[in-house]
UniProtKB/TrEMBL annotation:
Membrane-crossing residue ranges in chain numbering: none
Keywords, comma-separated and alphabetical: Aminoacyl-tRNA synthetase, ATP-binding, Cytoplasm, Ligase, Nucleotide-binding, Protein biosynthesis
UniProt KW Transport keyword: no
Catalyses which reaction(s): tRNA(His) + L-histidine + ATP = L-histidyl-tRNA(His) + AMP + diphosphate + H(+)
EC number: 6.1.1.21
Membership in a protein family: Belongs to the class-II aminoacyl-tRNA synthetase family.
Domain annotation Aminoacyl-transfer RNA synthetases class-II family profile: ranges: 1-400
InterPro entries given in the database record: aa-tRNA-synth_II, aa-tRNA-synth_II/BPL/LPL, Anticodon-bd, Anticodon-bd_dom_sf, His-tRNA-ligase, HisRS-like_core, HisRS/HisZ, HisRS_anticodon
Gene3D superfamilies on file: Anticodon-binding domain, Bira Bifunctional Protein, Domain 2
Subunit and interaction comment: Homodimer.
Native organism: Flagellimonas halotolerans
Protein name: Histidine--tRNA ligase
Length: 462
């Protein structure tokens, strides 16, 4: 008995309807990327392992899918390494490539390799799949699309303001009103680590803090202690956990907490400028909120960081995020190139739009008209008619066989086709075709030489 087919956990098949909805989101995002002056690029689905490893912190490195070398890779491993069963020493010998974990590090590699071809500041967008060996759960998959926009070669905080506006424009266009764009600054977190005496443990501090929404305050503190951050240092950080109020009130409290930290105060000043500028230009439907607990676990962030939350009442993780990285290209040899970027979580945005019933009804229509098939002579005439309608810009199709009329109508109904064309022997004799509205049942006659007029009328309805 044949084994039942399956797909790997954390991956999905997509039906025509699902693909249409995903394309709707992608096209909306892409439209605004281009409106804001971003240019498209693409990079390979896999990179050299050395390009990716060590760029995301220990936790990120563990989630990178490694690709085994081709051929008899085991024979090339020496006996000592093989018998040690140490994955850290064995993996580099049997795997030289890996699936990309995100689009940002490959983008940094792209910039360094093409630095003499690029006009700086360089604004790029990229919409491609990424892979992470994460534990699958609602809204979290092992294969998923990222929709990224980045600017490199400009350190102006106006870029951060522009990204807030970009988030607002896309979500407003999608009808997803009421999203919250959370903002913080890694310099503030660096300053806090400094004033509590844990500067050398900044990465451990931010990785633990990044889990606050998932595991709660007490477990975050416990993880910090496990990483070597003292109980006294955590006690000094308590004001961070207790900060409340408006953005301006929180910033004033941070000024007190970070008074002895130069880098921390710089982070406060940057946030003040970004927030005040956004308030001046205004947003359409989103709101900008300072969240001093926002950390984002990736190591390469150095300045402002963003995370987007779905409207209140929708249980979903972040649907977007990003931030400033001052020297990401430096890891590939190109120093002092500042960058900032954001990402849209396509799959989570899909789930939110589905939950709130925000997809346009028109996405369910894959065909504007279906022409029934009444036989060889009629079918050839119908094919000519369908070809003419396609040239007029309609999505038109001909049922391929002269099956029973009831079966053809049933097919049209299942496909959600709004209009069905009947072109039988009698219609051919009279040089006309009959159009049935599948919703109302009304039927109307049209002359075979009036396709342009008919197409204009259908376009006005679908």
């Amino acid at each position: 008995m044949a084994k039942k087919p399956s797909i790997p956990k954390g991956t999905r098949d997509f039906s025509p309807a699902e693909v249409s909805k995903r394309n709707y989101i992608i096209q909306t995002i892409k439209k605004h990327f281009e409106t804001y002056g971003f240019q498209p690029i693409e990079t390979p689905s896999f990179e050299n392992s050395e390009t990716l490893m060590g760029k995301y912190g220990d936790e990120g490195d563990r989630l990178i899918f490694k690709i085994l070398n081709s051929g008899d890779f085991i024979s090339k491993v020496d006996d000592v390494t093989y018998s040690s069963k140490n994955s850290a020493s064995l993996t580099p010998k049997i795997s030289e490539k890996a699936l990309r974990y995100d689009l940002t590090v490959p983008f940094a590699r792209y910039v360094v390799m093409r630095q003499n071809e690029i006009d700086f500041p360089f604004k790029r967008y990229q919409i491609q799949p990424v892979w992470r060996a994460d534990r699958p759960q609602k809204g979290r998959f092992r294969e998923f699309y990222q929709c990224d926009a980045d600017v490199v070669g400009a350190n102006s905080l106006l870029q951060e303001v522009e990204f807030v506006q970009l988030y607002d424009a896309v979500f407003t266009d999608l009808g997803l009103k009421g999203v919250t764009i959370k903002i913080n600054n890694r310099k503030i977190l660096s300053g806090i680590a400094e004033v509590i005496g844990a500067k050398h443990l900044l990465v451990d501090f931010t990785v633990a803090l990044d889990k606050l929404d998932k595991i709660g305050e007490e477990k975050v503190k416990a993880e910090m202690m496990e990483k070597g951050i003292s109980e006294a240092a955590i006690a000094k950080a308590q004001p961070l956990f207790d900060i409340k109020g408006t953005a301006s009130e929180q910033l004033e409290k941070l000024k007190t907490i970070l008074a002895d930290s130069e880098v921390g105060m710089l982070g406060v000043l940057e946030l003040e400028e970004i927030i005040s500028t956004v308030e001046m230009v205004g947003l359409q439907s989103a709101s900008l909120q300072l969240d001093v607990m926002l950390a984002r676990g990736l190591n390469y962030y150095t300045g402002a960081i963003f995370e987007v939350a779905a409207p209140e009442g929708v249980k979903m993780g972040s649907i977007g995020g990003g931030g400033r990285y001052d020297d990401l290209t430096g890891i590939f040899g190109l120093k002092d190139v500042s960058g900032v970027g954001i990402s849209f979580g396509l799959d989570r945005i899909y789930l939110v739009l589905e939950e709130l019933n925000l997809f346009p009804d028109s996405l369910d229509i894959s065909l504007d008209v279906l022409c029934l098939n009444f036989g060889k002579k009629e079918g050839l005439a119908a094919l000519k008619l369908v070809s003419g309608l396609r040239k007029q810009g309609l999505r038109a199709d001909l049922y391929p066989t002269d099956a029973k009329v009831q079966k053809q109508f049933k097919y049209a109904d299942k496909r959600g086709v709004p209009y069905v064309i009947l072109l039988g022997d009698q219609e051919l004799t009279n040089d006309k075709f009959v159009v049935k509205n599948m919703k109302t049942g009304d039927q109307n006659d049209y002359a075979l030489d009036s396709l342009e007029e008919f197409a204009k009328k259908i376009k006005s309805f679908v």
